[in-house]
Every structure is written in structure tokens, then in C-alpha cells.
Amino acid sequence: MNGVHDMGGMHGFGTVQPETDEPIFHERWETRVLALNLAVGRIGGWNIDRSRHTRESLPPATYLASSYYEIWLRGLENLLVKHGLVGTDELAAGKMIHLPPPGKTAMTVDQMVEGLRKGGPCNREVHTPAMFEVGQMVRAKNINPSGHTRLPRYARGKIGEIELVHGGFVFPDTNADLEGEHPQWCYTVRFTGTELWGPDSDPTTSVSVDCFETYLEPVEY
Amino acid sequence: MNGVHDMGGMHGFGTVQPETDEPIFHERWETRVLALNLAVGRIGGWNIDRSRHTRESLPPATYLASSYYEIWLRGLENLLVKHGLVGTDELAAGKMIHLPPPGKTAMTVDQMVEGLRKGGPCNREVHTPAMFEVGQMVRAKNINPSGHTRLPRYARGKIGEIELVHGGFVFPDTNADLEGEHPQWCYTVRFTGTELWGPDSDPTTSVSVDCFETYLEPVEY
Amino acid sequence: MSDTELPIALRVEALESLLIEKGYVDPATLDKIIDTYENEVGPQLGAAVVAKAWVDPAYRARLLADATKAAAEVGAEGRQGEHLVAVEATADQHHMVVCTLCSCYPWTVLGLPPTWYKSPAYRAKAVRDPRGVLEDFGVSLPTTTSIRVWDSSAEIRYLVIPLRPEGTEGMSEAQLARLVTRDSMIGTGLALRP
Amino acid sequence: MSDTELPIALRVEALESLLIEKGYVDPATLDKIIDTYENEVGPQLGAAVVAKAWVDPAYRARLLADATKAAAEVGAEGRQGEHLVAVEATADQHHMVVCTLCSCYPWTVLGLPPTWYKSPAYRAKAVRDPRGVLEDFGVSLPTTTSIRVWDSSAEIRYLVIPLRPEGTEGMSEAQLARLVTRDSMIGTGLALRP
After folding, report:
1. Kind and range of the H or E element at D58?
2. Helices (H), A83-216
3. Starting at the edge strand that comes first in sequence, how are the strands of the sheet with B137-140 ordered?
4. D67-101: per-residue pLDDT in tens?
């Protein structure tokens, strides 16, 4: 989706504001939002792509007015409701009204420690050969899907060079809708700053974007 | 500027909501905001491009959370302050603290009636021949200025056909910064839907965008 | 937006009294502006233009050649209509007008824009999915009808001449004008059937 | 956002007690997660990786060949570091990492991202004007130094190996690690001079 979350290249957000001696969390509730997301995420029935898509689907003005952990809170609430773990009546009441569905058991400390240590690798075997090779020029397609995608708007239609071939990875665009992992080759494509932002931009910069194979098409010279 | 005001093609704003028997204004304060903008605009020392640029320069979250007349109110307040007609202390107090600069006299009813009837034509004589002609294919340049521009992001880098040649018009990109009218040829360029939104989009649509000459470059086939 | 701000009505009131106190505005002038757009300048002017073009081929030709001048013939002229272009629907071509960057609109012939015209939903969707916009308005066009969207990105303002409905052959200009809705002149609707 | 919403801290408290009541989460597990990211997983791990790469050419080679495995050698592994790539600064090439679409970040080596990394300002500006971002951090690079930005748009996470400062020839790995700031491993800063 062409959402406000896709903000690469936007103006109007002001200068970056580093914070001296920034604490890891600024408020206690932020710690709980992080922990709740990680703890429920494992049993909820969704995945990391669906979580991201849910967050970026917040109303645009809400997304921009919310802090990072506020966005995580709102996203989690929406996921819990969509997946039938919590009713909107329960959210409003802050109390259980419906019995939980079977098999949704809290993770223990040990399971969580192991889960964090192992992570959730997204590489997958792909049985087709890679379509592109390092050094090849490609164009990022002009796609504008209404659903989740990880091809930023600023790269679409632009020509870059294949720089790294990472192997097969879960395809977020389908995985976010629970339509399957459909793994694809994933590449790093390097675009020059002038290709992305025009001839007036800084010629000494480049941006590398990680792109799934179906985001790309070959360019003939 | 690549701002949130440039929303052509975005997702996430939901369906369009027509209102049956919509009144011309929904609240009395909206009438006053409209009238204040029109009345002060004539004596303020700015122009329509600067007004637009001021509105689109509101913080992105504020812009998206505000109604149209709220945006007009915030824009007007900012213009009044920037142009020295009102101090922020006066805005806060709702009372005059500083004497007004000389020569800023309220428009009379008759002057306003005449002003509305005449409008503010933006066509200007241009002394160079038009670079493009009807039927010619052109590419909208990939520009990303930090200041005001009227070339929407969705058209940049895209190829279209010159459809209308409108003559010379005030160039908003410089006029908004009070850097002069620098009139240019203005064209309507017609882009196919598939050129703008990719091969998966509706092939029976097209979008015509009014483009100033320096937004365009010739395309050779 | 911030918690410390006054309610907007009070904020506007304060601004107005400040600007009056500083001598920048005359309340009578403000009232006149509002009266103009509440009672004088509105879509009835555009409807008159369209109905005239439907019945008078010479006027239609003048309108398509120079809409600014042709609209002035029925008294529609001035602010936000200084450079008017009329685009005419045909059986297989529909037109829709939008301003994605702000909310430019042909005030002289349509008055002030409705809320939906100024909404992010419309501004975002019209250029990408005009057929979906029509669905939002309950309008369904055959896929054989192409849709042309006009994004008012400069100072030209667009007026749609909608398709004249069938069964209106004997109707007078005044009767026809009542069939020409505001939305049909933006392109999110069609002219009414008699 | 809406006026009827609870203050956020109360809202989070209510959600937590609801999820505990429904048996979805165990408070001890929540505490353990927080403890992990407050006290265990943080930029000291990335600093150890970088310092080791500075002094040990064989480790540097392993890091550049497979950063996921090389980071695991110093105990940095797991969530949001499953697919790590290290990019090495040189005298004429600087690196900067961003995630424009959300806030992807190499947790295993840097811990949780700082607020500015997650801010619209950084996400918007880093890909368009990385030199301007460096100015926001008070860092000025010669124009002869090119800047490579890495937008973490998939599941690969990037760790910058900053340039080893001059005058550090005799220092131990532990001493060097103290020069490796978090920002230098994101690319919005440089390693400290001794």
C-alpha cells in the first residue's frame, strides 16, 4: 500500500533529533508494549509481516501523530481483535468477557528465552534459479498494490544494480495476508542518488534497497 | 516539497464519503475563516502560491488531522506572523499589542465585490516560443525540490502526451517564495493509467496533469 | 491540535477581532464575502452553462473554445474561474476533476467545494482508481467507457459538461438546468434523468 | 488519539491485565523480555564485534563473509539479527543504515533502536539527504567521501563497521570497543577518537 509509513524521501518532518544519553525506554508502559507484542506474537496466529501491515494500516493521521510504541500498541490491539483473541468489548472493559480459544497458552520464561535466542529466520529454500546476478542492471517495477509491500515508492520505476544475492526469503506481500510464504530470491539493489532524486541531488550518495525478485525486471542496454 | 499534501495515489484514506444535502458551511467559524483568508489575502503581501505552500508546510500529522478550514486557519495565522502583520503574542492574547505597519488598510465591501468579480488571473505574456506542441510525448522530470512545486510525485519520471498548451502562467515554485513570477508556458499532459500505476492498473483510465514547461523534458522515440 | 489550544470557534473569533482591531479587515466585507458564496455563486451557474450548451450548438462551440468567456456570458466569472476549460462527456468517455495537491475547484461555476472534494480520500483515490470513486458515489459505468481524470495542478479550472440524459429532447433550458447536479459537473455523478 | 481514549499508560495496563486474565501472557515472561533488552542485548555486543574485526583480520574476513555467524561467536544472535550483513567504512566511503518503511534494526548487535531512528524525520531524510542527516548529528564528511545508505526493506539487517580511528594502534580489543558508539554502527556517527 502507498501509505504514510512509506516515508523515504518525504519533506516536512524537520531535522533529526538525537537525544543525549537516551534511555532504552522513556516510560514504563513502553516496556510493557514491547513485551506484550513479543509474547503474544508467538501464539497469536500472525507473523511479522502481518504485524507490520497492521501497523501501517492505522489511519494516516493517527500513524503520524503516534510514537513508535503507541503504534505498536494500536497494532497489537487490532491484531488481537482481528484474530479473535480479544473482543472489542473486552478491550473497552479491560476484562475478560469471552473464554479464550483453545490452545492459546502463554509462553514460559524458558520458551521465550529460547525464542529470542533463536529468532525467526525468514530464509527459505527456493527451487528456481536466481533470475538476476551481481552486477546486472534491473528496474524496480512500478507496482502500486493496495496490500502490504516492501518495495518503497521512491525506488519504483528506478534503475539500479544488483549488488548482493541473499537467497530465498519469505515473500512479505503474501505472508502479510496469511496467503502463504511463497519464498522468492531476495537481492540488494543499489541505486544512485541521482537516479532516485534527480540530477540536482548529491552525486556522491547511493541507496541500496533489498528487493524481492518479483519487484524487479531486467533492463537491456 | 514531497509533503503529505501530495496525496495522489495514496492508500489508507478509506472510501470517499459524499454527504446528502451538504450545507455550504457546516459551522459558523468556517464562514469566517474563508472570509478572513480572502479579505486579508489582498493586503497581506503574499500570493496564492505562498498561501498554498504555507498550508502544505504545516506539520504532516497536523495537516492530516485537520479539516480544510482548519488548515486554512492555521495557514493564515502562520502567514500573518511571517509577514509581520500579527505577532505570536497578539495571536495568543487575541488583542492588538503592536501598531499595524502603514498601508495595510481593510478592503471595503465595494473593493471586495470588484475583486471577487475580477479574480486574480495568473496568465502572463511569455517571450519565448513554446518548447512543446500538442501531440508531442514528454517526460515529467524527476525533481524533488524542498520548496513549493505543483508537479505531483505520482507523475514524476512518467511519460505523457501534450494535450493542451495554455500559454504563459505565473510559475508557482518561485512565486511561493516571493522570488518573482517568472512566467512559463503551461501545458496539460495526459498520462495513461498504466504508465502512472503500472500494468496491473485499469487500462481504460488516464490522468491529465497541468505542467509548467520546466517540469518537462522531451522524449525521443 | 495540542491540548492547550482553544476550541476552534473561539480561536477564529479571537483572530477575527484581532484583525478588525488592527484595521486589516472590515466586518461588513467579511459578511459580503460569505453572502456571495452562500447565496450568489454556486452550482446553479454551472448548470445554466451546461444546459445552454446542450440546447445551443453555437454556445457549446464557444464554451469548448473558451470556457472562461462563455461562462461570463451567463454571469459566471471571477475568482477561481479566471482560466476555465470545459471538458465534454461522450457516450464512451467520462471525465472527473480533482486537485490532488490542495483543493482547487472552479468556484465561479460551482461555488465552494463540498467536503468530500477536499478530503484525502478523494484526492488520493481519484487519480489512481476513478472507477472505484464512482462506486463510492453509487455510479457504475460500463468498462467500455473510458475515464479521463483532470488533476488541477496549475491555475486552470475544469468544468465537466455531462452527457445529456435521454428523454430530454423537448425540455427547455431551465428544465434541463435542474437535471445538472453539482456532482455531474465534477464527474463523480451523472446528470439526472427527467 | 480521540478524546475518549484513556491515557496511554492506563490503556496498556488494562490490555496487559486482560491478556494475563485470558491466559495469553505470563507476567514473568514479560519481565524477562524487558530485562533482556534493558540489561543483556545492547550496542556493547556490536562494539565487541567491531573491535574484534579491527584487531583480528581473520575475524574481519569471517564477519564480512557471514556476519550472522561471526556475531554469534561473541554471543550476539537471535531475534532481529537472523540475517546480518556487515558493511565496512573506508576512508572514502561512509555507510548509513535506515528502515524507511518501519524501523527495522539489528537488535542482536545494537539492542533496541533509539527514538530518532524510528522518527519520521530520520526515515524520510536518510535516503534523500544522508549528508544532511550527518549534519543533524554534528558530523561533517569531506565531499570526497561517498555515502552509501542501506534501506532495510527486507529481513536482512545491516551493521556498519566504522573506520578505526587514528592513534589507536596499540590499544586492546576491550579499549577499542569503548570507542565504538552505537551511532557509529548505524552510520550517523563516527567511532570516538582515543
Report:
1. helix D57-65
2. 88-93, 109-118, 172-175, 193-197
3. B216-218, B137-140, B159-169, B184-192, B205-212, C146-151, C93-98
4. 999 999 999 999 999 999 999 999 999 999 999 99
Say yes or no for a CB contact (<8 Å) between D12 and A52. Answer: no
Given this model, what pLDDT does residue D6 score? 82
Residue D12 amino acid letter = V
Model confidence pLDDT, tens digit, residues A31-87 = 999 999 999 988 889 999 999 999 999 999 999 999 999 999 999 999 999 999 999
Grid coordinates standing for C143?
A: 468498462
- Does residue B71 or residue A103 have the better pLDDT? B71
Confidence of residue B42 (pLDDT cuts 50, 70, 90): confident
Condensed to tens digits (0 to 9), the pLDDT of residues B53-62 reads 999 999 999 9
The mean pLDDT value for B174-189 works out to 97
Contacts of residue D108, defined as CB under 8 A and 6 or more positions apart, other chains included, come to: A119, D41, D45, D71, D76, D77, D78, D79, D80, D81, D84, D157
Q: Which residues of B173-192 are buried (b: 16+ CB within 10 A; e: fewer)?
A: bbbbeeeebebbbbbbbbbb
Q: Which chain A residue has the Cα nearest residue B14?
A: A59
ipTM > 0.90, yes or no: yes
Determine which helix (DSSP H) or strand (DSSP E) holds B187, and give its type and residue range. strand B184-192
The reported pLDDT for the residue numbered C29 is 98
Portion 136-155 of A in contact with D at CB < 8 A: 150-152, 154
Region A86-103 average pLDDT: 94
User: What pLDDT, on a 0 to 100 scale, did the predictor assign at position B221?
Assistant: 63
Question: Would you call C125 and B16 a contact, using CB atoms and an 8 Å cutoff?
Answer: yes
**A111 close to A140: Cβ distance less than 8 angstroms:** no
Helix (H, G, I), strand (E, B) or coil at D86: strand
Residues 68-97 of B with CB under 8 A from C: 68, 70, 73, 76-77, 80, 85-86, 90-91, 94-96
> Is the pLDDT at C1 greater than 60, yes or no?
no
All cell numbers assigned to C52: 445552454
**Across all residues in chain B, what is the average pLDDT?**
97
The residues, any chain, with a CB within 8 Å of residue C57's CB and separated by 6 or more, are none
CB atoms within 10 A of CB A104: 16
Cβ contact C70:B108 at 8 Å:
no
Q: Flag whether pLDDT at D2 surpasses 80.
A: no
Partner residue facing C155 (CB), from B28, B151, B169:
B169
Q: Is B3 on the interface with C (CB under 8 A)?
A: no
Residue C19 is placed in which grid cell? 484583525
Question: Tell me: the pLDDT tens digits for B84-105?
Answer: 999 999 999 999 999 999 989 9
Q: State the chains in contact with C (3 or more Cβ–Cβ pairs under 8 Å).
A: B
Contact status, residue B176 vs residue B49, Cβ threshold 8 Å = yes
Q: Is D140 exposed, middle or buried (0-12, 13-18, 19+ CB in 10 A)?
A: exposed
Distance CA D10, CA A38 (A): 20
Q: How far, in Å, CA of B144 to CA of B6, rounded?
A: 12
Is the pLDDT at D1 greater than 50? The verdict is no
Rounded distance between C-alpha atoms, residue A125 and residue A130, angstroms: 12
Half-sphere exposure of C187 (CA within 13 A, CB side): 31
And the C-alpha cell for B102? 502603514
**Cα dist from C41 to A32, C18, C29, C81, C186, whole Å:** 57, 29, 16, 11, 16
Q: In whole angstroms, how far apart are CA B217 and each of A79, B17, B156?
A: 47, 38, 11
| Contact between chains at D78 and A34 (C-beta distance less than 8 A) | no
Cα torsion through B112, B118, B119, B125, rounded to 10: -140
Q: What percent of chain B has pLDDT over 70?
A: 100
Q: Give the helix/strand (H/E) hosting C158.
A: strand C157-161
Q: Are strands A184-192 and B159-169 parallel, antiparallel or unpaired?
A: unpaired
- pLDDT at D43 > cutoff 90: yes
